[in-house]
Amino acid sequence: MEEKVEVKIEQIQQKLTPTIDTSNRVSSLSIKGLKQKADVSNLAKSETLSVGEYLADPFSQEDAIKHWNDYIEILETKGKKLFASYMRLSKPVLMGTNILLEFPNQGSKEDFENTNSELISYLKTNLRNYDVKIKITVIETYKPKVIYTNEEKYKHFKELNPNIELFRQTFELDL
User: Fold this and answer.
1) Is 79 left (phi over 0), alpha (psi -120 to 50) or beta?
2) Are residues 74 and 99 in the same domain?
3) pTM attached to this predicted model
4) DSSP state of 2
5) Number of independent structural domains in the chain
6) Is residue 127 located within the same domain as residue 71?
7) Residues 156-159: contacts with CB within 8 Å, 24+ apart?
């Protein structure tokens, strides 16, 4: 048995050792050598283009939502519930290869952006498209009105409870 293992190791070592064919060597400074270098670089460029084409497969809104929800489940099993809740805040909308999200405030946007690198790599891998980007907009709808003067306070309470006017008149109160 040990002999078989040794034979296998020798076969693997023979495959791994580089063999240099010195019979067809060409000087790198000759015209023929420069032509070979150009051919090799053109071949490498054509190979990278074919790889890039593979990494830009089209995907639909349903595919994006499916993988989005799958990642939420993965986060919950890992115990990262805060990031999962950020993902649930907004339903992803697909616009080309951009995934558009809306967050209620700047703080949740910044937290999401600081921790979304794993999400982006997950989506790029599973959607087989390395052009995927996440764009986030902040929608702040609630801005409390600050009440300073006594008249503003009275108007505010009057809007909340119109009976306050009756109370003020009954007890002859000033503002």
Assistant:
1) left
2) yes
3) 0.53
4) H
5) 2
6) yes
7) none
Range of the domain at 92: 61-138
Residue 127 buriedness (CB in 10 A; 0-12 / 13-18 / 19+): buried
> In this structure, what token pair is assigned to residue 46?
């054509």
Report DSSP letters for 51-94, one per residue: HHHHTB----HHHHHHHHHHHHHHHHHHT-HHHHHHHHHS--EE
| CA–CA separation, 120 and 109 (whole Å) | 15
User: What confidence tens digit (pLDDT) does each residue in 4-47 have?
Assistant: 656 666 666 665 555 555 556 666 667 777 777 777 666 555 54
If asked whether residues 97 and 118 sit together in one domain, one would say yes
* Paired tokens of 117: 């690198």
Q: Which of 54, 49, 72 is nearest to 130 (CA)?
A: 54
Cα distances from 172 to residues 101, 129, 154, 165, 166, in angstroms, run 54, 73, 14, 10, 10
**How many residues are listed for the chain in this entry?**
175
- Rounded Cα gap, residues 129 and 125, in angstroms: 7
Q: Residues 30-40: pLDDT tens digits?
A: 777 777 777 76
Cα dihedral 10, 14, 15, 21 in deg (nearest 10): -170
Label residue 93 exposed, middle or buried (CB < 10 Å: 0-12, 13-18, 19+): middle
